[in-house]
Amino acid sequence: MLYSSSMTQVGAGYLIKQLVWCALGLVACVTMAMLDYDALRKMIWPIVGATVLLLLLVLVFGRNVNGASRWLALGGFRIQPSELAKLTLLIMAAWYCDRNQRHMGDWKRGVILPALLLGPVLALIFVEPDRGTTILMAGVLSVMLLIAGVRWQYFAVPAVLGSVGLGVSFWHDPMRMNRILAWINLEENKDGVGFQAYQAMLALGAGGWSGLGLGNGRQKMGFVPEHHTDFIFSIIGEELGLVGTIGVVIAFVAFVIAGVYIAMHARDNFGMLLGCGITFLIGFQAFINIGVVTSALPNKGLPLPFISYGGSSLLMMLACVGVLLSIARHARDHAGIPDAVLAPDNPFVPRTA
Predict the structure, then answer these.
(1) Quick check: 307 and 18 in contact, CB under 8 A?
(2) Element (H or E) spanning 38, and its range?
(3) Domain map (residue ranges) of the chain
(4) Cα separation, 154 vs 65, whole angstroms
(5) Which of 163, 146, 87 minimizes the C-alpha distance to 121?
(6) What's the pTM?
(7) Which secondary structure element, helix H or strand E, spans residue 110, and what is its range?
(8) Contact 230, 292 (CB under 8 A)
């Protein structure tokens, strides 16, 4: 699909670059799967330090694209530090919740301290600006905290404050405010800010049940500007039809089910939380991307995991899969040990008699 969506503009250029990143990602996946995921807990501070350094560097030396400085140029490639920050934030949250699992019901340890720990990294992503990733990670981290035992009532005040802050930010950001207004009145903005979203809807509609055929799409001829990245789902719908898009949705649903199963059978609380975080990260990101392409959500600028063009995203997604495989592999190693002994405070693990 990546080659089909970009062949009229760059030939096999994007495909070749993505294959290079895919090879690196598979190496990262296999490496993470072979290692014990507990090593991530032991190396948390070097990982956090490297991530924060890259996020600071991108603010100073980052390449500006469409008003956002999210990429560092290295030779002929660009890396996006916020993609590394996604996994780093998950590790930080799992590490913190594991260390404080008996006190997560407390307001201070369940909300205040996690906010002070995770907030600075989210803030560095927010000021790039990358609102979509910030919202995504805030949602995923909130789910992890809820799973860890934080009372849902405690999220009321932070949620209100975050929503107000986000609203003020959007109000002073004309580009993103216009995207929201265009989403509300897509038909009235189809020749302006809403052009891409409207053309994506046309692509999905043109595909019908079985699509126009692989390579035969027309909307990729300049009508959908981000057809190989954020809006590649619309090209899938045009060329492979409803059958293709439903197949993609089923694949992500299956991934989420498998990820939750792995997390539920993790050998310890850290593995359970990290597995849940990775699973919901990929699931939520796919949900948001598909929601944007189908105009169910305003444009957030998030790629479709594993499918959209983007080396940093593909590399980190495959590394996350490797971590999930490591969690699954070590759970099998301890299959004979009662769950109650392995994780007595793990709400996702069933208790043995």
Answers:
(1) no
(2) helix 38-42
(3) 2-342
(4) 38
(5) 87
(6) 0.87
(7) none
(8) yes
